[in-house]
Amino acid sequence: MAGTLESAGYTCAEDVSDADVIVYNTCSIRDKAEQKVYSAVGKQAKRKRNNMGGLKIVVAGCVAAQEGETLLRRVPELDLVLSPHHANRIDQLLEQVDQGSQVCAVEPIQIAEDIAIPRRDSDLTAWVNVIHGCNEKCTYCVVPNTRGIEQSRAPEAIRREMLALGEAGYKEVTLLGQNIDAYGRDLPGAAADGSGRRAWTFTDLLHYVHDVPGIERIRFATSHPRYFTERLVRACAELPKMCQFFHIPFQSGSDEILREMKRGYTHSRYRRIMDNIRRHMPDASISGDAIVGFPGETEEQFEETCALVREVGFDRVNTAAYSPRPSTPAALWDNQVADLIKVDRLHRLNRLVNEVAEERAQRFVGSTAQVLVEGPNPKKSDEAVGRNSQNKLVFFPGNGLQLKGKLVDVQIDYVHAYTLFGHMLT
Ligand code: SAH
Ligand code: SF4
């Protein structure tokens, strides 16, 4: 959206009080994120009522998709409500606002290819969408309602965007999708090799974009265990630009809870995927997401989640207490877990996750990491910081400004759970 607005002649204000247009890009995955939006928007609406008649207030993202016109009724000072499907039309929608209408663009549509050059926060690493939406029906999740059905971008469009990034000096690309390994299911055709596979799978896409000049590293997120194939693991092990980093949410370690969540896999299938990755790439980083306190979760079932975390030895786990979401089945069940129990389980799981991550990080001590330097350490100017292939932050003495954008070898001397420290090898 920032890119589209800049191409339309808008510039970024330093301070929110100087802005003529304020865009809230919102998340509705959990209730807390949604409530933050209402309090932030409410403040600006009040300012507008009091003295800023010309101010335009925009709510974009998943809260916009979820609430639609309700948002306009709740906060009548809003000028524009637009769902993610319409994000790249924000300039045209603001023109409609200029003509005096209040606009609500939330109907799910075929997403048009971006024509504007997206603005990116870094000049080194970029995110590239490969698939929008989600076709799953996890019983806790609001995403299928807000993001709509899967829409894979054309492989040629993805490659074109990566070629432009490579030419502009970007070194690393993270390919993005809700369930990125489901890529291609909605694209027509069958593979030419007579294997019966679809014309395009995510693995085919990796082979197709892998040689883009200038791009030295490729990551991807998020993977869904149901679609994570052995073929994909092999491609990641064989293609040299692929980073050894996997984000594969598991949500729970209990087969009963996974069934209630409608995740479509079991604890042991998840373990087999992990074993597969470790067999091909013993040092790969693996991160996941987990939910505690899903309706009906017993202490024993929670313990199964803890057991999975211990067995796999994750590098990181994003944890959350279950949050009932509008229009999702599990929100209506009468076996909700008490908040106090959820919070207690969350704390216990977080403690375990940190212990496991710290233990797992020890494998790097004494090893040599290839680090893509992002610049100086913001807190210590005589140090440089970057990431290794496993997506860990690495700090080392050196001139971050001079080294920025270079791949350098760093010997790791000591580690914390989520950061590594070492010295550069010359
Ligand atoms: N498509 C990805 C995850 C997308 S949502 C997948 O299926 O793995 C990101 C994370 O938010 C999820 O992995 C889940 O852990 C968390 N999440 C989603 N809905 C939630 C809810 N209602 N309460 C708590 N956490 C939730
Ligand atoms: Fe939500 Fe499940 Fe889709 Fe992930 S796969 S976005 S958790 S519905």
Automatic annotation (TrEMBL):
Domain MTTase N-terminal: 1-99
Radical SAM core domain location: 120-359
Record Gene3D superfamilies: Methylthiotransferase, N-terminal domain, tm_1862 like domain
Domain TRAM: 362-426
UniProt KW keywords: 4Fe-4S, Iron, Iron-sulfur, Metal-binding, S-adenosyl-L-methionine
Domain of life: Eukaryota
SUPFAM superfamilies per the UniProt record, alphabetical: Radical SAM enzymes (SSF102114)
Keyword Cell membrane: no
Required co-factors: [4Fe-4S] cluster
Pfam families named in the record: Radical_SAM, TRAM, UPF0004
NCBIfam families (alphabetical): miaB-methiolase, MiaB/RimO family radical SAM methylthiotransferase
Name this polypeptide is given: G12733 protein
Organism (species): Coccomyxa viridis
